[in-house]
């Protein structure tokens, strides 16, 4: 009855409104969303000046020298919970998001801990030493890609499987998201780290509707949508995308079909302004491209602005061709037959044929040039 009242536009009780806001951001309840906001906005506590012993300790952490780190911690266990101004490079500097080599303006609200550096760089022995000495396994630390994140999320992003397993074994919470809204599970899925994702799921990661779509778990998707139909168009925090976008990116045709059958908007753009079809083409998710085309997705869609080195005005054909492995010729011909323009120019002045030629896809370039 409560879901019917929501769908029918009836007045909401305050508790219902809180619930809707939380679910819209991918959280199971308002208390979980509230805890997340409180955690990531807590002020960092770090020393303004670092002494020689502390600098030597940080140098050992950056080198991945487990023995030196353990020796320093034996002399001063409090170093395990040290905060350093800046990002997880532990250099006392925050780098610009658009250029990882250019220092950004000083921001006293951003700091990181040694465990973040060990996690993202795969220094498993250093991570173990820090945890043995009392480091907070779920500490928040700044990363210029994911914003304020836990060590586990950074391990899911770029760390090896053994450091991720270590963090989980020491009690890391697999459901804590970054301040930008990314979860360790979605991070692993987007970076095709399937063993990392499996470890997170085994440790209790609870897939949201977006992650269920990315995993292709149609039974869970159906159950979640039955329970709360508003999740169909819920926007994930980090990408600002709906579930069908993630099913497209991760090449899950069955999830796309289920979402479409429930009425999902196949043209809903994410924060970078791609439709699910454009995203599937970018990631080379050919089964998803085929499924979306069969379901009537717009084959003439273009990217609206530059995103991830993709120029404004990029087409489905251009994104498909701009990969090491050429897409099937039959798929390209099918897209052309449905109206995809092989001679369209993107903002960088290139056509799909130009891109195919540059990638060494000679046969594909000829198909595109002939338009047949």
Structure, described:
With 372 residues, this protein is mostly helical. It has 3 domains: 2-40, no CATH class; 52-202, Alpha Horseshoe (Serine Threonine Protein Phosphatase 5, Tetratricopeptide repeat); 211-370, Alpha Horseshoe (Serine Threonine Protein Phosphatase 5, Tetratricopeptide repeat), CATH 1.25.40.20. The chain is 48% helix and 5% strand. It contains 21 helices and 6 strands. Strands 1-4 form a two-stranded antiparallel ribbon. Strands 2-3 form a two-stranded antiparallel ribbon. Strands 5-6 form a two-stranded antiparallel ribbon. A hairpin with a 2-residue loop joins β2 (95-96) and β3. α6 (114-121) packs antiparallel against α7, α9 runs parallel beside α11 (194-202) and α10 (184-190) runs parallel beside α12. Mean pLDDT is 86; it is low at 1-10 and 40-48.
Number of strands: 6
* Low-confidence region ranges: 1-10, 40-48
Give Rg in angstroms.
23 Å
Could you tell me the CATH topology label of the largest domain: Serine Threonine Protein Phosphatase 5, Tetratricopeptide repeat
Mean pLDDT: 86
CATH class of the largest domain: Mainly Alpha
Secondary-structure topology with pairs:
Blueprint: H1 2-7, H2 14-24, H3 30-40, H4 52-63, H5 66-75, E1 84-85, E2 95-96, E3 99-103, E4 111-112, H6 114-121, H7 124-132, E5 141-143, E6 147-149, H8 151-157, H9 161-169, H10 184-190, H11 194-202, H12 209-215, H13 218-227, H14 243-249, H15 253-261, H16 276-282, H17 286-294, H18 316-321, H19 329-337, H20 352-358, H21 362-370
Helix pairs in contact: 2-3, 4-5, 5-7, 6-7, 6-8, 8-9, 8-10, 9-11, 10-11, 10-12, 12-14, 14-15, 14-16, 16-17, 19-21, 20-21
């Amino acid at each position: 009855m409560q879901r019917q009242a929501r769908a029918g536009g009836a007045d909401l009780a305050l508790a219902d409104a809180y619930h809707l806001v939380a679910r819209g951001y991918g959280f199971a309840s308002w208390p979980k969303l509230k805890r997340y906001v409180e955690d990531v906005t807590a002020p960092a506590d770090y020393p303004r000046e670092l002494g020689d012993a502390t600098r030597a300790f940080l140098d050992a952490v950056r080198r991945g020298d487990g023995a030196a780190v353990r020796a320093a911690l034996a002399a001063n266990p409090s170093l395990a919970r040290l905060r350093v101004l800046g990002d997880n490079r532990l250099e006392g500097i925050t780098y610009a998001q658009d250029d990882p080599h250019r220092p950004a303006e000083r921001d006293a609200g951003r700091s990181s801990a040694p465990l973040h550096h060990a996690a993202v760089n795969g220094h498993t022995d250093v991570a173990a030493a820090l945890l043995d000495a009392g480091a907070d396994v779920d500490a928040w630390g700044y990363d210029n890609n994911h914003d304020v994140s836990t060590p586990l999320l950074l391990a899911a992003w770029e760390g090896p499987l053994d450091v991720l397993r270590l963090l989980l074994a020491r009690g890391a919470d697999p459901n804590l998201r970054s301040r930008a809204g990314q979860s360790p599970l979605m991070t692993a899925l987007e970076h095709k780290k399937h063993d990392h994702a499996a470890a997170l799921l085994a440790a209790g990661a609870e897939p949201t509707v977006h992650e269920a779509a990315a995993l292709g778990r149609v039974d869970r998707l159906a159950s979640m949508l039955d329970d709360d139909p508003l999740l169909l168009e819920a926007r994930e925090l980090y990408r600002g995308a709906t579930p069908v976008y993630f099913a497209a990116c991760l090449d899950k045709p069955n999830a796309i079909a289920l979402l479409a059958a429930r009425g999902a908007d196949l043209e809903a753009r994410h924060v970078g302004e791609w439709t699910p079809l454009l995203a599937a083409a970018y990631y080379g998710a050919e089964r998803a491209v085929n499924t979306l085309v069969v379901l009537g997705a717009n084959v003439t869609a273009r990217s609206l602005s530059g995103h991830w080195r993709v120029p404004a005005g990029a087409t489905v054909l251009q994104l498909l061709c701009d990969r090491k492995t050429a897409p099937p010729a039959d798929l390209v011909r099918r897209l052309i037959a449905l109206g995809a323009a092989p001679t369209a120019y993107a903002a960088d002045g290139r056509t799909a044929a130009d891109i195919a030629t540059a990638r060494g896809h000679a046969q594909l370039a000829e198909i595109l040039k002939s338009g047949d």
